[in-house]
What we know:
Structural class: alpha+beta
Largest sheet: 6 strands, mixed
Radius of gyration: 21 Å
Order of helices and strands: EEHEEHEEEHEEHEEEHEHHEEEEEE
Mean pLDDT: 94
Shape: globular
Oligomer: single chain
Strand order of the largest sheet: 10-11-12-9-3-13
Amino acid sequence: MQNQKHYYIEAFKTIQLSAYRFGESPYAHKYVTDETVFGMYCDRFYPLKTDNQEDPIPQYWKLRKEVLLYDVPEKPLEIRGPDAVKLLEKVLICCVDNLKIGRARYGIACRQDGTVLMDGVLMRLAEDRFWYVKANGEFMTWLQAHGTGMNVEVVDPDSRVIQIQGPNALKVLEAAIDGEMPTGFNYFHSGMFSIGGQEHLVSRTGWTGEMGIEIYSNSGAEPTDHDALWDHLFECGRPFGMKFSSASSMGIRRVEAGILDNGSDIEPDLTPYGAGIGQFINFKKGDFVGRAALEDADHTQLLFGLTCATATPATHLKVFVENKIVGHITIGTWSPTLDIGIGYVRFLEPQANGDSWLGQSVRLQDGQGEMHDSIVVTLPFYDAEKNIPRGKGKPVE
């Protein structure tokens, strides 16, 4: 592999960490070895790599051409009660009242100053019951605090999430469910499915930019038999080539798809405008936390894509114009599909002349101090219309 085609960049060292007070997956014993490298997200462990020598590229192409199963650390929160809509309208910048039962919507929460606190996927399960699948970081107490005096509960359903992603994902689901596949189960839809005799919430979402689903386990009175669910899914997925994968292949694909990680890509001082996601603000709804600040906020975008033909962008690498540092990389990889280095660049401030950074030529400084010509581009790097996760994309040859 050529030096510039390092698909996985070691931004941080691997360290030992006790599992005390952190969540271990109920599926972990199905795949963990002494060499598994874990990451931490939402206070939950997840398999980052199978070992330190893992090559993610074979799994990447299996994701693009067939199907993979991922054990992911996403954490849903349940918001329920007569004032559930009222609370969510108050804390999210999207409209909640018109979200239909069985549908999902991207939802951002801002602080009073308009900066992004949290993002995630909101699903409406009933008129007064929602699940919000949040990104990394604390959010439960924020919801509870803003719900003071309201007739609403915010609880942790203790659900673990499996993602099945790739062109064959819906074929696996169709084989796994008890009965026929319902019509109209489209992108960003959700619903209850009987899978191997167990009822589970399933959504047409994911973190790969590919066609995919997420399956949410249950706790409480009828807890999921995780072993039975895992075994049933793999039995049904075998004819379609389904395999387990660590998150390394998912990481490459999510960058190509322009999917942002809150707190790392969407840095804490960015507003939705600065992060390039201002289109998700709905000023037609009533008041919400951060509205006043966002109405007066600078609309300048500071987070973009960056392409480099001669080096792989990596977390913390600096971006220059002439001899001045103008930004840094939040995440990067080598794109196997585009055969070019790609990453997200966070600019420190707007250009002095007021022009957009989009389309500008900049220079990326690699880890050895060498400079590489790069171009600022829009996100995602391809499939801007999201035809692939909608099931309308062309098959990968």
